[in-house]
């Protein structure tokens, strides 16, 4: 390897100045944001442990041992997004003989971690730049040629910016394009409300021919791709930012119209998707100590919905739907439709994003603020049981 | 990318087929009660040359993997393509009689899942050059001689997505990709250059890295053949764009050069005048 060029003095100086400025801004705004603070990092805490750093391919990182241990660049940061398994899974599928898979992205191959596929199969990796609509149309064109395109992009720029192209180019034509929208919901945190994607379920749920599914962690995402890559119609996989808590320890059959019952309890049922599956499991543990037993179901297939799972839940008692999306038109609304249309006559309490533009902040703080964690779901169950 | 054989076709056949496109556009619009005369007439010679001389397709095998792909950004002119596909035998000619009727496969915009010979559905302006980029990439990946040809309108040049696709086509060096812009000067609100100026188009497409061919008269059969043939069969590592200057409503005197017949309907007396002029016309 070529020796690293010494860093210019100015770089370090700028870094330090930036940090001083950042600290000043923080101290000025801290008082207002105090109520959102969950677990402020301890002073001097490393951004990542040495153990974790060892597991990351730092070949392209500019951060050397000379840097402050809390410093990071994009390479280091991406190493933390362990649940973005799209690229790794597609490489395995390609190695297993799926030579029809092509990957499309719009300048987000690194952040969504499909870059590895591109490095291994450069002929089958198309980075269309920041031109999402063209990417979606081109993916449709590739599908007409007998290829299996997988789009990997941030969900907002895929599902919401591209909704008309998804509708006309992929779904109206019923082409077998697979879309993985990452960083859905409020995962983009402080990057701003413009980057939050809480309306995608409502928008995509109304598009015919489209299957809509939500893998809740990296194992679920790889299961989703492995099970469905050859499905002859479009699928949108709504994924997180890659730092989700691990729910599954082994892959499973990620069935269209399926669900997984992860806990069984007699008092109420939490039907959850995405990040809220882990929140549901946490709620289960919190409520257990209070003598409340809940069933927790990962309803990873949003459309079509596992209607039988909703019927079963209704027999048990109140239902709590939980999602990192706008409760208007979202997953909870889909559950409500089943309850109403089938006359199930049970109470539904929806946990999710309110029908308003989200505030910005660190994702961890936002989840707490909006009650999208174990405590939030537990509180919703208590409310539901009170009637 | 290899070029493909060009069929030896007499100019009179192209002239006849362009007449067929115009005549059938008038007839089908009469069934429907409303139609895009102007856009169909302006592309008549281009479409006739593509389908009867230049493109490689098989009517008895509409999904032939190595066929050339033809997509329409200006999907509203599909009324002029359906008669050609029927004439070639992609579907029974009597389907045309059902045009726009309840449940018909044939409507104002083409549907790939319903109509044999239609390579991609359209209707939303600005999408299909992107689709053609994907088709050209796919053909190259598969080692297929197929070329992707996208016919667009001049108003379509206002769509931002066109320029996204233009960048992609050049970036990937897709010399199996051909864009044709039917510059007929007619849109819903008048001349697109008055509505939102897209000219100078030659400089734009060249700057975007496309082999840009200006066709000063898209109704002159020899000139049009030459431009399309160069775009399709002289690959140089770049996608090609034919800027075809045409006349909206070409072939019917009271429609020619006007935007008012972009969409319209002919009553019984005028329809006879239109048929007579089309039959008598010696275009190209």
UniProtKB/TrEMBL annotation, chain A:
CDD domains: TPP_PYR_DXS_TK_like (cd07033)
UniProt-recorded name of the protein: Transketolase
Species of origin: Phreatobacter cathodiphilus
Record-stated family: Belongs to the transketolase family.
Transketolase-like pyrimidine-binding domain: residues covered: 80-246
Keyword Kinase: no
Coiled coil region boundaries: none
Keywords: Thiamine pyrophosphate
Matches recorded under InterPro entries: PDH/Transketolase (IPR051157), THDP-binding (IPR029061), Transketo_C/PFOR_II (IPR009014), Transketolase-like_Pyr-bd (IPR005475), Transketolase_C (IPR033248)
Region (Disordered) location: 21-43
Cofactor: thiamine diphosphate
From TrEMBL, chain B:
Record's keyword annotation contains Iron: no
Keywords, ordered alphabetically: Thiamine pyrophosphate
Keyword flag DNA damage: no
Family indicated by similarity: Belongs to the transketolase family.
Cofactors, names only: thiamine diphosphate
InterPro entries in the cross-refs: THDP-binding, Transketolase_N
Domain Transketolase N-terminal intervals: 19-274
Record's protein name: Transketolase
Gene3D superfamilies attached to this UniProt entry: 3.40.50.970
């Amino acid at each position: 390897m070529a020796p690293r060029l010494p860093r210019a003095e100015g770089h370090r100086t700028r870094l330090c100045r930036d940090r001083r400025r950042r600290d000043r801004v923080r101290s000025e705004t801290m008082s207002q944001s105090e109520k959102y603070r969950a677990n402020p990092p301890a002073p001097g805490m490393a951004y990542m442990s040495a153990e974790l750093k060892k597991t990351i391919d730092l070949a392209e990182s500019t951060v050397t041992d000379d840097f402050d241990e809390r410093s990071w660049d994009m390479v280091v940061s991406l190493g933390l997004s362990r649940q973005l398994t799209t690229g790794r899974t597609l490489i395995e599928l390609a190695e297993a003989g799926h030579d029809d898979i092509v990957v499309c992205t719009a300048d987000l191959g690194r952040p969504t971690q499909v870059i590895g596929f591109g490095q291994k199969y450069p002929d089958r990796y198309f980075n269309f730049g920041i031109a999402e609509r063209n990417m979606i149309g081109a993916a449709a064109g590739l599908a007409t040629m007998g290829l299996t395109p997988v789009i990997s992009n941030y969900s907002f720029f895929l599902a919401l910016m591209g909704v008309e192209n998804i509708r006309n180019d992929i779904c109206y034509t019923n082409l077998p394009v697979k879309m993985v929208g990452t960083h859905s919901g409020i995962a983009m945190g402080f990057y701003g409300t413009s980057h939050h994607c809480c309306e995608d379920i409502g928008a995509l749920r109304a598009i015919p021919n489209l299957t809509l599914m939500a893998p809740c962690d990296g194992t679920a995402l790889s299961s989703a791709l492995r099970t469905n890559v050859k499905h002859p119609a479009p699928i949108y996989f709504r994924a997180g930012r890659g730092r989700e808590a691990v729910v599954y320890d082994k892959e499973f059959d990620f069935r269209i119209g399926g669900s997984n019952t992860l806990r069984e309890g007699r008092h109420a049922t939490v039907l959850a998707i995405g990040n809220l599956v882990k929140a549901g499991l946490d709620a289960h543990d919190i409520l257990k100590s209070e003598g409340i037993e809940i069933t927790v179901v990962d309803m990873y297939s949003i459309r079509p919905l596992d209607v039988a799972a909703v019927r079963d839940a209704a027999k048990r008692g109140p239902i709590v739907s939980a999602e990192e999306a706008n409760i208007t038109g979202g997953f909870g609304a889909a559950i409500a439709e089943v309850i109403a249309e089938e006359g199930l006559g049970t109470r539904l309490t929806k946990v999710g994003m309110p029908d308003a533009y989200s505030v910005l902040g660190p994702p961890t703080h936002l989840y707490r603020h909006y009650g999208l964690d174990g405590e939030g779901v537990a509180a919703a169950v208590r409310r539901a049981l009170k009637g | 990318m290899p070029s493909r054989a060009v069929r030896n076709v007499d100019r009179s056949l192209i002239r006849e087929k362009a007449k067929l496109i115009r005549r059938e556009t008038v007839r089908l619009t009469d069934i429907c009660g409303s139609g895009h005369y102007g856009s169909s007439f302006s592309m008549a010679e281009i479409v006739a040359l593509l389908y009867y001389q230049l493109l490689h397709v098989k009517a008895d095998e509409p999904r032939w993997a190595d066929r050339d792909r033809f997509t329409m950004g200006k999907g509203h002119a599909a009324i002029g393509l359906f008669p050609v596909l029927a004439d070639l035998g992609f579907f029974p000619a009597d389907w045309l009689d059902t045009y726009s009727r309840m449940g018909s496969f044939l409507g104002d915009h083409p549907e790939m899942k319903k109509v044999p010979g239609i390579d991609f559905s359209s209707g939303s302006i600005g999408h299909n050059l992107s689709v053609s980029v994907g088709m050209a990439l796919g053909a190259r990946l598969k080692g297929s001689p197929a070329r992707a040809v996208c016919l667009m309108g001049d108003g379509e040049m206002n769509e931002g997505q066109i320029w996204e696709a233009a960048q992609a086509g050049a970036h990937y060096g897709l010399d199996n990709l051909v864009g044709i812009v039917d510059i007929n000067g007619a849109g819903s609100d008048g001349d697109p250059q008055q509505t939102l100026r897209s000219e100078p188009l030659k400089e734009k497409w060249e700057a975007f890295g496309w082999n840009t061919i200006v066709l000063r008269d898209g109704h002159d059969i020899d000139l049009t053949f030459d431009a399309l043939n160069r775009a399709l069969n002289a690959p140089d590592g770049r996608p090609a764009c034919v800027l075809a200057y045409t006349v909206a409503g070409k072939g019917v005197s009271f429609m020619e050069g006007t935007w008012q017949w972009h969409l319209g309907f002919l009553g019984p007396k005028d329809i006879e005048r239109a048929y007579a002029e089309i039959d008598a016309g010696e275009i190209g």
